[in-house]
Design brief:
Layout (H helix, E strand, L loop, with lengths): L3 H15 L3 H7 L3 H4 L1 E4 L2 E4 L7 H13 L2 H9 L25 H26 L4 E5 L6 H9 L9 E5 L4 H10 L5 E6 L6 H14 L5 E5 L2 H6 L7 E3 L16 H7 L1 H20 L6 H15 L4 E6 L7 H13 L17 E4 L2 H5 L3 H6 L6 E8 L5 H20 L16 E8 L2 H22 L10 H14 L11 H12 L1
Parallel strand pairs: 3-4, 3-5, 5-6, 6-7, 8-9, 8-10, 10-11
Antiparallel strand pairs: 1-2, 2-11
Helix pairs in contact: 1-4, 7-11, 11-12, 12-18, 13-18, 14-18
The chain binds 6-O-phosphono-beta-D-fructofuranose (F6P).
6-O-phosphono-beta-D-fructofuranose (F6P) binds next to loops.
Amino acid sequence: MWNEQDWRALAEHARRCRQRPIAALIAAEPERNAAFARRLGPLYCNFARQHVDAEALADMQQRLKDSGIQAQVRALFDGVRINRSEDRAVLHTALRSDLGSSPEARAAHAAAQAALETIDGLVIRLKVQGITDILSVGIGGSDLGPRLVLNALTEFGNGGFNVHFLSSADGMYLDRYMGALNPEKTAVLLVSKSFGTQETLINGAALKAWVGDSERVFAITANGKRAAAFDVPPHNILPIWDWVGGRFSVWSAVAFPVVLGLGKPVFREFLRGAASMDAHFLEAPIEDNLVHWQALMSVWNRNAMGYGTQGIIPYDERLELLPAHLQQVIMESLGKSVTIDGADCMQATSPVLMGASGNPSQHSFFQYLQQGIGTVPLDILGVVQSGHCQPTNHHFILANLLAQAESLANGQPSDDPQRRYPGNRPSTVMLLDELSPYALGMLLALYEHSVFVQSQIWGINAFDQWGVELGKNIATGLMPFVEGEQTDLSDIDPVTRELLGVMRRS
Ligand code: F6P
């Protein structure tokens, strides 16, 4: 965790950097493009348009080293119980790489491999049963990651099943699926680490009755007992474990829908890409480590420059779900205001993460990014080889990516204030050679690890999420009132009481 001296030094650097706009920094540092860019395999990242100079960067890297980050990274991979508020290890890395040196980490890796093998048998059974459609029911980390991967990599494989996702408890989508799919040819996957998430259980109960045969209901869960009590046959239960956080679980059997939609080879490549980022994170020196670069830029923007929002803008429609996935990874992990020891945080933590695919966004919220009062640093992602057959379209997309990053940084003066572009708006440009399963695995692992490093700098626990519980508990208590089973509203919060009344009268 960084101390007061570290934060004072950062503030000093920020005072100096603010005196020179980004364009001037670039002009003053002729080597900046080389010095501020790194490549790992198919992923190239250029940080030259961040509003930070070489002196500040070098000092932050030194401070990160001095704070003991390398030992903290080792503890993560070795399965030390760093999720203290839940007394759990954090071993999502063991789902894709075998870099942990402890018996716990090795056992976790072996268990993950065994679960992957089990999937093969289930795929064959589903084919024999004549299943055509898969309805994957889950929410948060049990939905966003697999949904993103399947959507992003559609062209890379065909697992032989049409896969659909149901997340919200809103009954409209449930109705639509039950109207569109054939219950005799559909298998329902209930994806829930806890198997206690009400959205998944409510949808699951309706779908279990709809398919009418529990042989076609599957569970992916760390709580096999609850799944069995829900009548899921034991041979239809795939394990995950308490050492995998929901938002870090896309590497586990939670991605069963990905295997069914795209086939196992695609999923294995995806894991291999993440494993290469794991090795890089563990082994590369801080100055060359993409994860540390990414994390330090985030901390710089949040704490030195004071930006409260961060944008993720992929210039590739296949990555349109990336911002939603990263919202959970970043905001559920880093949206904390007390340290791991329970003290108030010395510094601001998670920014608000926003984003959407770049080209359509230019015609909606980019006005704000270019001329709005607030500055939103961006991660702008592009894919060099398009993977499709429309070169003109692709060149147009790439030209727009380049133009937006340039105009945000450099701006444009004008005598007419309405037509003036202030510029000095930072971005990192990340280019993938192609959007392969391997490259996507690397990219997602990069953000996961960056979140870990930021959490260590701020001294917070990135792996719990107590903030989600209060609302869930109140909702459970309110259910009987909404359903009309309870009518005595005297102990209810006065505004909630009024709103319940409006609902009843409507
Ligand atoms: O309520 C938040 C949360 O616990 C997330 O952390 C998690 O990804 C999601 O709900 C779903 O949880 P589960 O997989 O246990 O259903």
